[in-house]
Design goal:
Helix content is about 50%, strand content about 0%. With about 450 residues, the protein is mostly helical.
């Protein structure tokens, strides 16, 4: 019995070690999110502590000036024509920034090292001077940039996740953490079974030896055993084969589930368009209303793509020649070419061709969506589905546009019937039902021509 005890103890030790290891891995997995959150909080706090003292300007007043004069060449957190403005208060003092913004070329001509460095770094692109801005105006702009720069970065996929919550929780994908945890559980289970199987075999061997029955020792393998013979020997272990197949099935099943779930989902799709039209410039900086171009959104199923005649309402005169050394912008020239328009004589030719825009948002044929129902009746903003379109230099599909995403939106948003003529009939019918009166299809609009002749 002593030998059985020793053997059992030698086998139990690895089992206890494996169990402790699995518990440790599980504990570590639970601590990872907390550690990541703590590191993120520390990372966010560090720049805030290191940031320069807040500017004494008015950020609200600076925002208006910034959007009017700066957004065509600058952004807060990324380089456009000029550098990203975030952190400029740390890189340069306020007096230098005032001189630079008012007349950068005068500062460069004076030989200021910092001014010369910035000028040469950005290919000697001349920054527009703003002599009309007072010191207070520029300080307000600096205060606005500093305020925006100190804001925490939006979460990825937050392009966007306001509307989809943007995507949080709506994608339905199996997370890598879940998949890894499942694989870990299977491996631990396999190891535990192998250990227990070893214990049982060892006890059986000891019992047979006590009875005087010769037992062939496990693990005594011919030194000349080939790789094929090893694989063949292992293939006879039914438990090993079973769990290997189970693991492969789980891996393929998880991969297949993720692939099928995302079939037809084109979130983030950003094709290259024939004209580099900037929604950031038109909808963001110039504040052009979405429905000025997409006229069908409030009255039709489709929002519609504007004809080039709508573009010509402005670009018959606006040609951006100040940015191209007196030449007409290449993108505006594409409009003129498609319309066979001569900007010198202001006459149209006979060889007009439509612009071949690439469709971005595309629902399946079996899904019915009506823009006017959402825009006019529900009063939903374009950004609810299309994301921060006013900040997009190049448009991409912001929301997943899946059935789950639509259903969640319908569940979460309230219906406002007050002063909304669309719901007058619905409210009237509900009142009739409460009074116990008869409600016929005619009361519900069943006599309208469009109910049948659609």
């Amino acid at each position: 019995m002593r030998s059985i005890s020793l053997i059992f103890r030698s086998v139990v030790k690895p089992f206890i070690f494996i169990s402790a290891l699995s518990l440790g891995v599980q504990g570590f997995a639970q601590e990872v999110p907390a550690l990541q959150a703590e590191e993120a909080a520390t990372a966010d706090a560090a720049p805030a502590e290191a940031a320069a003292a807040p500017s004494k300007g008015d950020p609200a007043a600076g925002a208006a000036i910034y959007k009017q004069k700066c957004t065509s060449c600058h952004a807060i957190d990324r380089a456009v024509v000029g550098p990203a403005l975030k952190g400029m208060s740390e890189r340069h003092d306020e007096q230098w920034l005032i001189k630079w913004i008012r007349n950068s070329q005068a500062l460069v001509a004076s030989g200021d090292p910092a001014a010369v460095k910035v000028f040469e770094e950005y290919n000697k692109v001349v920054m527009t001077p703003f002599p009309e801005l007072t010191d207070d105006d520029i300080v307000n702009i600096i205060a606005y940039v500093q305020t925006e720069g100190d804001k925490p970065a939006a979460p990825a996929g937050g392009a966007a996740a306001g509307a989809e919550g943007a995507v949080s929780g709506d994608s339905g994908e199996v997370s890598n953490f879940m998949l890894g945890g499942l694989i870990l559980v299977v491996l631990i289970t396999l190891l535990v079974i192998l250990v227990l199987n070893r214990v049982i075999k060892t006890l059986d061997r000891v019992i047979l030896q006590k009875k005087g029955i010769a037992v062939e020792e496990d693990g005594v393998v011919s030194t000349k055993e080939t790789a094929y013979e090893k694989i063949r020997r292992l293939s006879k272990n039914k438990k090993l084969v079973f769990f290997t197949i189970l693991l492969v099935v789980i891996l393929l099943g998880s991969w297949g589930w993720k692939a099928m779930w995302n079939t037809g989902v084109h979130q983030g799709y950003q094709p290259e368009q024939p004209i580099k039209y900037s929604h950031q410039l038109h909808a963001g900086t110039l504040k052009i209303d979405c429905q000025y171009c997409h006229t069908g959104a409030y009255k039709s199923k489709n929002a519609t793509i504007p004809s080039l005649n709508v573009c010509m309402n402005c670009h018959n005169y606006v040609q951006a020649t100040d940015k191209y050394n007196g030449e007409i912008s290449p993108e505006i020239m594409k409009i003129y070419k498609a319309l066979d328009y001569n900007p010198d004589t202001k006459e149209y030719g006979p060889n007009q061709k439509p612009i071949q825009w690439v469709r971005i948002h595309n629902l399946p044929d079996f899904a019915y969506f009506n823009h006017s129902q959402h825009v006019s009746v529900a009063g939903i903003e374009c950004q609810q589905c299309h994301g921060p379109i006013q900040t997009m230099e190049e448009v991409y599909q912001y929301s997943p546009l899946t059935m789950k995403w639509c259903i969640n939106c319908h569940r979460e948003h309230d219906v406002n019937t007050e002063g909304n003529g669309y719901y007058d009939k619905v409210v009237e019918v509900h009142d009739l039902l409460k009074q116990g009166k008869k409600v016929t299809p005619a009361v519900l609009g069943g006599l309208e021509c469009g109910k049948c002749h659609y």
